[in-house]
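With this grant's support, the team has encoded backbone shapes as discrete tokens. A representative record is reproduced below.
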Amino acid sequence: MIRFGKWVVKRRIPILVLGILLLIPSVFGMAFTRINYDVLTYLPEDIDTVKGQNILLDEFGKGGFSLVMVEGMSEKDTAALEKKIEAVDHVATVVWYDDLADITIPMELLPQKVYDAFNKGDTTMMAVFFNTSTSADATMDAVRQIRSIAGKNCFVSGMSAMVTDLKALCEKEEPIYVMIAVVLATVAMMVFMDSWIIPLIFLMNIGMAIVWNLGSNYFLGEISYITKALAAVLQLAVTMDYSIFLWHSYNEQKVRFAGDKLRAMAHAISNTVTSVVGSSVTTIAGFVALCFMSFTLGRDLGIVMAKGVLLGVIGCVTTLPAMILMFDTALEKTKHRTLLPKMDQLAAGVTHRSWIFLIVFVVLLVPSFYGYSNTGVYYDLGNSLPKDMEYVVANTKLQNDFDMASTHMILADANMSSKNAKNMLKEIDKVDGVKYSVGFDSLVGSEVPEEMIPDSLRSVLKSGKYQLILVSSQYKVASDQVNAQVDAINTILKKYDPNGMLIGEAPCTKDLITITDHDFAVVDAISIAAIFLIIAIVFKSISLPFILVAVIELAIFINLGIPFYAGTTLPFIAPICISTIQLGATVDYAILMTTRYRRERSHGNDKRSSVVTALSASIPSIIVSAMGFFAATFGVGIYSNIDIISSICMLMARGALISMLCVIFILPAMFMLLDKVICATSVGFKPRKQIPPAAPTGESAG
């Protein structure tokens, strides 16, 4: 790689200029990459709930759906408001109780449950259907316009309202995420490194790589809001190590080459490529494992972050050397003594008492695994949003005033007989937690003949092959009660129409629970297997993959087990992400120490001295790396009002520290206990045979 290092140093100015020029299309790519705020759109396309959503849009021209409550308005004013809402772009239909029959039919002839469904005290409710999908930009614009038209006495609930408010909150918070991560990471590096301004150089370079990554997302079409919110922070956290390694190597090479900075940088690049590529492979493997989720949000995050790590490596060995050489004089003038003391005594103490840490490993393993296996997760992401958010206020009002917590939709055969349809609705009404079900046949009876139903309402409830039925539920999305209710309604539906579909937020979320439970097991197994294989190849060892993965897995069990003992729950996606990211990103700490341990053993040093040297040499790098990771994520976790972002960042911050402690205290104990096994099952741990010098030739002296 020395030739590559020399090539980079020679062409450092054109490389830096090219890197800066690439920021221009990247900024445009960032601006035009659509952000998806609806996690349910990442469900597989072949399940009934997703097929049903597509049919609803194709057959009925209706995608998004909201319940709009209006408080303190007269019937006349509400009717006028209804007309204004109908005129909003992308509003397909507004259904209020005055739409349920021709105006010549007295309202008292309507079924009581239909009238009660739309009125409660001084609050009345309208059902608003949009002709675009739940999370489409046009739907969100329509929600904002409805709120503007109706004023402060209007409350809009439903998934479309949630994604509208979530988008506003994300756009407000995301710049602050980056600022917090940058400031805290800068402070951490200034404290733990030997220069006051090198952290700023690192951050400029990593910032460039982040912009390249976010800009290249344009070619993916769209990314999720979770990916967008985490991408910059995660890329900063996991790629900072590479910059630190280059800097340390550069300083070592300058001593070696007596201050020849160009030659020193060429060799530093060569060393960095060799080390960083091996290190980054494990991190990339962790992110790639997420791509195997059938819930494709994992693929979204996995592709973006794997790409980010790769671009971070490229930036580290191309544009960063150019920046360091450009500011070399200033960097020399601003060097300071590192605050980290020598770790010889700590290393000796840990190694001498290694049996204690083996006991700690055994003692922690069972309770941490139990906590890890039993930590609760939640799936109703709207429930964790700020209580003063408009969507949350509307949902609370819907539940308090109308005793409604969720709404399901049924797509049934339009040719089903009226008798069967009415019998089906009666059975559904008897299901626990169902307030009422309303379909075309709910409105037709002896008092209201079918020919009196307005065409506008007929088009809402019947279209082509399907009829639409609304089911009001008292149970919250993702609760055990609503999941049992969904099963019961599906059983009834399939009895009358084997091809019928139950759709809506609650049925989709129930599918999400089933799918992600399976995904968690698959992703966990793939990430462990991939990193196990990488370690086996890197060290040419049978035993070391078991040891290194076991130590980091203990750290993961502890990290994800803490919420169980603390009595808290996590958003469903957090354990899946953390188990792979923490393994892929922090197993590098263990690899670093193992590399030095192998080097010491191969030089003929005994077990104890090899472990002490490896530990004392590795602790500073591990601490700097872990504290950088912690700093980049902890502040975001504290600040964010979006629990899914906050939880993932807090788990990553805590995970970095736990992995650091496990590697520093438990891994050396493993080396002490299993040294003979490691040497017998690994290449490079036995001392190299010394070739005796050749016998002297020619005349002997004297």
